[in-house]
């Protein structure tokens, strides 16, 4: 995902390494080169600005001037600031005191929500939980069936309206699913919601209606890391329209430039909690800012 950015940064640092001491001009040039590398990776401008300002301030301070190996010290600063941009600490799922814990998934169509429902379901089941997946995407033909296929692969029950039952209201389905979870002793409910190709008011209103019906403990905004700068705009629209407590980056296995991953935390103020890295249900993990920063810096 970050190959180009990693290569660019490696080049910036290798030209620093040959220097015993770093002049102000060296630091300016380095900051400029890092800035270009980030912009080319599609990182949002406000994030780039904040990042570069922090690097410059720290790199011109005494921690670099007094360092035995100034280049190494600059790399250390970039690493620490990258971890900060990615959210610092790993943010874990918050479970409800009184089960079931309700996790709602939101995002554009194609972002990877249904796949994520299966991944999260499998991951939670392996951790000893008894999750229930809920098909509250009644918009797209086949969405219910797709979730049922995913649920079967994950070994997790799927709650969906019976065909011909006349229940066509996703808000009603979501509400009923919580009752079903209580009756059947499920401790986690994962609600898959409808997404559109673009942001629209009807979609937001429906997602907000589901949110109000189920009072989620976590609302996860799922975003395709390959959509570049659009990720930030989409994240802002979902933040304002539905609100969310965490972000899931999907398709991190792609070869796009990765700017979304580096922007979304800073822009929305909400932590990246999980990363999806492929089509298989196992291609999924908790997001660790420090590991991601290490990967970027190679
Ligand atoms: P939804 O519309 O948000 O529910 O998205 P889906 O879960 O249906 O995913 C859309 C497409 O992206 C499907 O073809 C998935 O197999 C694929 N997909 C989902 N997550 C990933 C991922 O992490 N990596 C890759 N390469 N493909 C993914």
The biggest beta sheet reads: 8 strands, mixed
The portion of residues assigned to helices is 40-55%
Order of helices and strands: HHHHHEHEHEHEHEHEHEEH
State the low-pLDDT regions, or none: none
Which ligands accompany this protein? guanosine-5'-diphosphate
- Overall pLDDT confidence: 91
Structural class: alpha/beta
Radius of gyration: 22 Å
Give the quaternary arrangement of the chains.
Answer: single chain
**Strand percentage:** 5-15%
Helix count, DSSP H or I runs of 4 or more residues: 12
Secondary structure tally: strands: 8
Placed side by side, the strands forming the largest sheet appear as 3-2-4-1-5-6-7-8
Q: Tell me the overall shape.
A: elongated
Distance between the termini: 12 Å
Explain the overall architecture.
The protein has 298 residues and is an alpha/beta fold. The chain contains twelve helices and eight strands. The protein has helices at residues 3-17, 24-40, 45-59, 62-65, 70-85, 113-126, 143-154, 170-183, 201-214, 230-241, 259-268, 289-297, and strands at 101-106, 131-136, 157-159, 188-193, 218-224, 246-250, 272-276, 284-286. Helix 7 links the parallel strand 2 and strand 3. The structure holds guanosine-5'-diphosphate (GDP). Guanosine-5'-diphosphate is lined by residues 107, 109-115, 195, 250-251, 253, 276-279, 283.
């Amino acid at each position: 995902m970050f190959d180009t950015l990693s290569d660019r940064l490696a080049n910036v640092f290798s030209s620093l390494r040959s220097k015993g001491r770093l002049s102000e001009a060296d630091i300016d040039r380095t900051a400029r080169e890092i800035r270009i590398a980030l912009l080319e990776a599609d990182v949002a401008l406000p994030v780039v600005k904040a990042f570069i300002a922090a690097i410059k301030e720290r790199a011109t301070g005494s921690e670099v001037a007094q360092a035995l190996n100034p280049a190494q010290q600059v790399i250390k600063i970039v690493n620490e600031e990258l971890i900060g941009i990615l959210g610092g600490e790993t943010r874990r799922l918050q479970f409800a005191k009184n089960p079931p814990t309700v996790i709602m998934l939101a995002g554009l169509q194609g972002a990877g929500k249904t796949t994520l429902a299966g991944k999260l379901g499998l991951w939670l089941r392996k951790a000893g939980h008894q999750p229930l997946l809920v098909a509250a995407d009644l918009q797209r033909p086949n969405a219910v069936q797709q979730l049922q296929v995913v649920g079967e692969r994950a070994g997790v029950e799927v709650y969906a309206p019976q065909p011909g039952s006349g229940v066509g209201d996703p808000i009603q389905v979501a509400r009923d699913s919580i009752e079903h979870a209580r009756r059947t002793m499920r401790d986690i409910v994962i609600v898959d919601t409808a997404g559109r190709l673009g942001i629209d008011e009807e979609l937001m209103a429906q997602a907000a209606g589901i949110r109000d019906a189920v009072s989620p403990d976590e609302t996860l905004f799922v975003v395709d890391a390959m959509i570049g700068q659009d990720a930030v705009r989409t994240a802002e629209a979902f933040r304002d329209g539905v609100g969310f407590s965490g972000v899931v980056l999907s398709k991190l296995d792609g070869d796009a430039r990765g700017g979304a991953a580096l922007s979304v935390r800073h822009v929305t103020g909400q932590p990246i909690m999980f990363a999806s890295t492929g089509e298989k249900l196992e291609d999924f993990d908790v997001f660790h800012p420090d590991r991601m920063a290490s990967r970027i810096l190679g």
